[in-house]
Specification:
The structure is a homotrimer of 359-residue chains. The first copy, chain A, has two domains: 98 residues, MurE/MurF, N-terminal domain (Udp-n-acetylmuramoylalanyl-d-glutamate--2,6- Diaminopimelate Ligase, Chain: A, domain 1), CATH 3.40.1390; 157 residues, 3 Solenoid (UDP N-Acetylglucosamine Acyltransferase, domain 1). Helix content of chain A is 15%, strand content 28%. Chain A has four helices and 40 strands. In chain A, the strands form six sheets. Chain A has a twelve-stranded mixed sheet with strand order 8-11-14-17-20-25-28-31-34-37-39-40, with helices on one face. The first copy, chain A, has a ten-stranded parallel sheet with strand order 9-12-15-18-21-26-29-32-35-38, with no helix packed on it. A nine-stranded parallel sheet of chain A has the order 10-13-16-19-24-27-30-33-36, with no helix packed on it. The longest helix of chain A has 21 residues. The N terminus of chain A is likely disordered. Chains in contact: A-B, A-C, B-C. At the A-B interface, helix 2, helix 3 and helix 4 of A face strand 23, helix 3 and helix 4 of B.
């Protein structure tokens, strides 16, 4: 039988006051600064003794009914009704939350040092304070920077370089010669550096493989979700620049470049040799065809199909193939009304035909 | 060289009569109850000595030509021609098939007990008759219920609770603090509890991670396919309710709730904090945006993009963004005819222009 | 700190002349046959001492500015300006590249023989010159052909047959009874033979599993990307025919057949019992519904949804649901112009109304 009480067993046993939290996050208290907090909660199901937050305006209504004892809100927050909770006003709710949560977070544990069941091949350089978990395989020529955490069943191929302070979660597979920068996080079962999809038909119509001799280069501060695939370049490098954040189940094909601080949501795919600019926001399930360029700061709506270069910085696009965002919405609004428009056209036609008979 | 004869080598050596099968599934025989069956087959390629079934009416034509010796059919089945096979009439073909196949099924084997290469950390509670295969890692604080089968190279993070009678296939990774109910099945290389995708920009436009402190809670009787990802909640739980069935390569983002007995086909994705009702049927490659609600019993056509809450129970939707199913089909039928409609509009325009000249 | 110099460290130390390369690939030299080459480069960022190629006409402009010393071009290539590089003219640039790259390629290393941490169950037949890496699990009854390379943390279920000269990359999971032909390549963390998605509702609306008793059969010369899932058949076999190439993150449901030499791009999905013909080209993120047939040589544009059988060989389709490719483009061009067409219709209506008043 399923025992719902187990759901919250994992909350750590913190016991702090609203005032102490406000100090921690640099906020100001409105209400009781002595109320005691023992864990976080969601605003719509908050319990006494917990802290929650209001960042997304869609959830504003819940602040009047939440049973949480403390709510983190923006400095600019204006109440439209009575609030029972103590408020902590901060400059940026999410940033404050990040600080706060880091205090409460208990991550996946990992014994320091190298587990006895890990296989470390010859000629490997391992930095200080590195943890390598059970059943990991590190092949020869690998370099691992200081303070890396490599979880169970990870595979690191020949000559891979991993920078300092990286976390590689269980089951990640990194093929030979790939390069990972500092402070990167790669989630479970993601594959880095498998062969790009390149074949050429021979005279009999069978496909001959084009060897994929390049690698994948991931710069500093990149975070990659679970079950992602980033293929190695045919020649040169598939390049994921500094600060990029990739969600789960994403496909990055060979020779792609993703610009700095670009964020891509789950299940999107970027085809071979496409070059995505910096600071782009790409929704889920987007497809981007090969050999095109997307300018900096472009926003691509979920499920769009980008079939040609987007050259305007900061453009917003939508649809498959993708159009200007507003234009797509206008066209789609009329797509919905097509039965009405067709009827109107048909009616007009009979009127004109009658007029033609008369004249 | 590929040897096609190997394809069927795996059929187990059963040898039963149509009459015995009818008894097993509670059906009635029309034809020879003594015909011997040694394995299952597909209706369009059936061989003498095998049993097949007719459930989907699309395959009805094959019943007149199949060489299978026995066909499972519905009580209401009416033949339009001569049938050579013996029929077994049952109330529910699929349910009968399930009973029948369970008899013939030989699953992935697993030695009882704990393999010597498995790594079991301290403070782990393991129930009776549990099998833990080679190269599994079970971290500290884990509780595993009776009769669980945990295949090779699985990783179970700290404090995870797994109910009784669960099957966890090879390579599954379960992060810390997640909770799994009784009689759940999780297929290979699926990831449960990796970090939700939450970042907030700092003053320099770099993204700062919002710690994901929650967990994933999976209730009883849930089955999850291969290479799925279910992210842990930022706060609280991502919740997969009783009886949910998820196909392969699905993305479930942080703080999502999936209602009881909802079924989701492959490669669909549900964005953060969306709440999906009970008994929904969601097709493949569907995208559902974050922070919306989908009512109970809603049917979502494959490849649809659900961009706003669907409040009507049992609604059928289609399109991206999704519309009422019938309305989408009507609009799409006219989308196909747009060249014709545009021509018609253009012709009408010239007629009117001529009329205007005349008057 | 990220050190970009590391990006090219992996290039092997070859040192050959343009003339020697021309001989290797059967091409003719235009320019200096004695120029020395020490590695490959991309045409847009080529460096002296490297060889690059021009195959896609989109990149033609770069041939006039590339700093690479040698460029592989087609026999038919005609220069529109001055070229500094030495050219090697060949019949097929990609085929020549394949030959050339195979010479420079240094793959993922693997110690010959069976690693001591690999678990090999009883009754396993292993051919000559097979390598089985660390933490691999081979269950009983498995047959592995000559010269196979099985990388770390792979799982091979009971009675699986693998032909000769196969490469199975790290973390692949193959369920029991599946059959793989000769010279196949399966990339990291792909799952072969997990259960098809089959459930039938009982009288209470709960879903009962339909046992999936079949297997997956993969013929010779098939290459499969990373994090792909191919489900086993409910009865019989899911069949991937000779020479098929599957990109990453693809879903192949139970009982599907994929015809010879068909190529499928990343993140596409094929639903249960669909039969795809030979020589098809299927773009990325395509969805194909169950129980339909797609004829030989059909081309399906990325993100299309194929909802009914495509019976014409060589047909090109696009859209969701998919239409004839040209017709989709015509309709979509008018979809973009819908605001204009609606305005035009509205204007025409007022004109007609005025005419009607007059007459």
């Amino acid at each position: 039988m399923f025992r719902p009480k187990q759901r919250l067993f994992y909350l750590c046993k913190m016991q702090v006051t609203a005032g102490q939290i406000a100090e921690l996050v640099g906020g100001s208290v409105a209400g009781d600064p002595y109320v005691k907090i023992s864990g976080p909660s969601r605003i719509e199901e908050g319990k006494p003794g917990t802290i929650t937050f209001l960042a997304n305006p869609k959830y504003k209504e819940h602040i009047y009914s939440t049973r949480a004892s403390v709510v983190l809100v923006d400095h600019g927050f204006v109440a439209d009704g009575d609030i029972n909770a103590t408020l902590i006003r901060v400059e940026n709710v999410y940033a404050a939350l990040a600080v706060l949560m880091a205090r409460f977070n208990i991550g996946l544990s990992l014994t320091q040092g190298i587990a006895s069941s890990a296989i470390i091949h010859q000629n490997v350089q391992i930095g200080d304070e590195v943890s390598i978990d059970d059943h990991v395989i590190i092949r020869s020529g690998v370099v691992i920077g200081d303070s890396c955490r490599i979880y169970g069943q990870v595979f690191v191929g020949d000559n891979v370089k991993i920078g300092a302070h990286c976390t590689i979660y269980p089951g990640v597979k990194i093929y030979h010669n790939c390069v990972i920068g500092d402070r990167c996080v790669i989630h479970a079962n993601t594959v880095i550096g498998s062969d790009g999809f390149g074949f050429t038909p021979d005279e009999n119509g069978n496909f001959v493989k084009i060897p994929q001799t390049g690698n994948v280069v991931i710069e500093d501060y990149v975070e990659i979700g679970s079950n992602v695939v980033i293929d190695r370049a045919s020649i040169g490098s598939t390049l994921i620049k500094k600060g990029v954040k990739l969600d789960n189940l994403i496909q990055i094909a060979h020779n792609v470049t993703i610009g700095e601080n670009t964020v891509i949501a789950a299940q999107s795919g970027v085809a071979g040799s496409a070059r995505i600019g910096a600071g782009c926001m790409i929704g889920g399930q987007v497809g981007i065809v090969g050999h095109i360029e997307v300018a900096d700061g472009v926003m691509i709506q979920a499920q769009s199909g980008v079939a040609s270069s987007v050259k305007t910085k900061g453009a917003k696009v939508y649809g498959s193939p993708a159009l200007d965002y507003q234009n797509y919405l206008k066209s789609y609004a009329l797509f919905r009304r097509l039965p009405e428009l067709a009827a109107s056209l048909s009616e007009l036609k009979s009127k004109v035909d009658k007029l033609l008979v008369k004249t």
